[in-house]
Amino acid sequence: MTVKTRRATESDAKALAELLLAVHGIHVRGNPDVYRELSRDAAEAIVLGKLAAGERVRVAELDNEIAGYCAATIQTAPAIPLLQPRRSLYLNEVVVRPQSRKRGVGRALLEDLQAFARREGVHDIELDVASFNPEARAFFAAFGFQVLRERMGMSADS
């Protein structure tokens, strides 16, 4: 059972929308004051928008079925005196079907992105991970991601 990665196409949009709905559901449950429910049509439109915008969307297949995907964009630091000039690859999302976890799917997607980043001369790969998602935090840490900064929040009514 080898994991294969490939470029996502429009014909993958429905399957990727289902995966997006699954990961988004974690966010809705974790922080319903910020995230709202998403319809299948809206999720599919988001996926198609990513493809149309040229976002790097990669699919992982296991046993010839889509087992996961990731989406990333190259970002360039603003040219201001405060920041070093650098390019980073921002990982917008990575999703693996629950039944495909612990089978190398997530690792294959991240290795694919890492190879792309090297080819493009990108300095680093960054992502945001919700504090209410310990499984994702552990996965990224095991791959080598480190906490670079923390963002805190509070209610204005506090």
UniProtKB/TrEMBL annotation:
Residues 3-158 form the N-acetyltransferase domain. It comes from the Bacteria. It holds the Pfam family Acetyltransf_1. Keywords: Acyltransferase, Transferase. InterPro entries: Acyl_CoA_acyltransferase (IPR016181), Bact_Acetyltransf (IPR050832), GNAT_dom (IPR000182). Coiled coil: none annotated. GO terms for molecular function: acyltransferase activity, transferring groups other than amino-acyl groups. PANTHER family: AMINOALKYLPHOSPHONATE N-ACETYLTRANSFERASE-RELATED-RELATED. This is Putative acetyltransferase.
